[in-house]
Every structure is written in structure tokens, then in C-alpha cells.
Amino acid sequence: MRFLLVFHSDKAAQWRFLDSAALPMAVPDRAALPGILNACPAQTLAWLLGRYAFAAAQDPEAAQILVYALEADAPYIAAGDDYLGPWLEMFMAEHQPCGYIALRQARDAVAAPALAEIWALAAEPLRSDQPGCQQTLGLIRGQAAAAETAVDTATRSPEPAKADPASERPAAMPIET
Predict the structure, then answer these.
(1) pLDDT tens-digit series, residues 32-46
(2) Which is nearest to 30 in space by CA: 55, 1, 61?
(3) Residues 6+ away with beta carbon under 8 Å from 45
């Protein structure tokens, strides 16, 4: 089966759509769409202009994505760089959605245990006794010393050039005639 998924992007202030034929896996039915969309982050990021998690929605009021059925042999609908807003609005006026998909921010969809270790590391300040911290401090000190030397060299006034005694000849005297 093929579906046209329609979403209004507040970021782009326009209707955006995705033909399910563009997804890397076949869509067996409408109920499989949220799972397939969750498994295709590259396509959904480009389409929605943001990272989201997908869930089935029964209530049209709670849904942000409208699902329209397409004929299996219908030509592929690709937006590319073209703005197809007027065509899409006419399509939506002539057809009724066959389903809805709800969006959640991706950070709400990520399991808390997966982030627990990251939050623990972020909450703990750097400790100077750790080898990684010692190495970083050594690099910073080395770069600071090199930068100081470069600044001192650049701001130091140049010493006057010493004259070569062989090149010091008395100026030639004009000959009077």
C-alpha cells in the first residue's frame, strides 16, 4: 500500500508531505506507519525539519500528521526543491484522511535509562586527578605558553641593525670644476 503523509511545519510555515514510496521499506498497512517512520530518522528529519517520535492517533485533534491513501500504481510524488503547496491543498480538499499519526518530541520518546549515564557524567564536575583531565590541562598549558611566546616575539621592538664596517665608506665628495 502507498500513503501520502501530510504535515504542517510551523518552522517552514508550509504544508510538507512524504510519499511512503520514498521510505526504504515497504509499508504493509496504515497501522505499520508509526513504526516504519521511527525506523527511518534520515527521511523523517528531512521531511519534518526536526526530530520526532511517532505514535498512532485515533483522535484527529491530537494528530499532527494526516495520512491519505494512494493508489499503488500512482506516480511517485516527490517535492524535491519545488513548492507544491497549492497542489497539496487541492489534494487535501478533494480527499479525506484515512488515518492520523501523533508526534512527540524525540527527547520525550528516548528511554530515560539510556540517558542516565550521560546525565550522571554531566552532573559530576571535572576532576583534576583523572588522566584525561591531566592530559587536557597539559595541552592547554603548552598552547598557552606557545601563544605567549608568539605574542612576545611579535610585540618586541626590533633591535637596530648593526652596520657592516666594510660598507661604511665616506660619502664621495663632489668634484668642482
Answers:
(1) 998 998 888 888 888
(2) 1
(3) 51
